[in-house]
Amino acid sequence: MSLQLDLLRHGETTGGNGFRGSLDDALTERGWQQMHATLAEQGGWDLIISSPLQRCEAFARQLAEVKGLPLRIEADLRELHFGDWEGRNAAEILLEDTEALGSFWNDPFNFTPPNAEPVRDFAARVMAAIERLQQELAGQRVLLVTHGGVMRLLLAQARGLPQQQMLQVEVGHAALHRLQVAADLSLREA
């Protein structure tokens, strides 16, 4: 049996754009509106699962209460930690180290920003969480409130893209994508 995962990225945050992986930014009012608008015609979930970062958890908690659904916080579905790049934007890093930024964008699995979590470790962490969820929740429909990096990883796999192209997957604020997770952990967009 497959697990149906509806992936929802958080909306706009108070921290703005840039590398904000483990920074715990809140949603802006617009971010809240974006997420509510995306889910206006959606429903039918058995469970809501969220990253522990407040840009995901605050919305997930409110939605779970309104919909009368259980909420689970999954630490392994948090965003990639960007190390020394945390809180900075690409333009700043580009001025300082063009080669490093290019290496990361072109092959994130083989280049790690200074003091960051390696993308290989991030991918292993996320996929281990997806495996646990598939084993436990097969046959159910789950809303996963998470981050751009988590969604890029999962969507790239579902689309059969090479690892190097993971960061080229577009995932805007409050984007919603549906995946089927099979027992063998193969992913496909639904």
Structure keywords:
190 residues; single chain; 37% helix; globular; 6 strands; 6-stranded mixed beta sheet; Rossmann fold; alpha/beta
SSE layout and pairing:
Elements: E1 3-9, H1 29-38, E2 47-50, H2 54-67, E3 71-73, H3 90-96, H4 98-106, H5 119-137, E4 141-146, H6 148-158, E5 176-181, E6 187-189
Parallel strand pairs: 1-4, 2-3, 2-4
Antiparallel strand pairs: 1-5, 5-6
What does this structure look like?
The chain is α/β, with parallel strands linked by helices. The chain has a single domain (3-189), classed as Phosphoglycerate mutase-like (Rossmann fold), CATH 3.40.50.1240. Helix content is 37%, strand content 15%. The protein has six helices and six strands. The chain has helices at 29-38, 54-67, 90-96, 98-106, 119-137, 148-158, and strands at residues 3-9, 47-50, 71-73, 141-146, 176-181, 187-189. It has a six-stranded mixed sheet with strand order 3-2-4-1-5-6, sandwiched between helices. A hairpin with a 5-residue loop joins strand 5 and strand 6 (187-189). Helix 3 (90-96) crosses helix 4 (98-106). It is globular and about 50 Å long. It starts with a strand and ends with a strand. The model has no long low-confidence stretch (mean pLDDT 96). Substrate binds at residue 55. The active site is at residues 10, 79. This is Alpha-ribazole phosphatase family protein. GO terms for molecular function: phosphatase activity. One of its GO terms (cellular component) is cytoplasm.
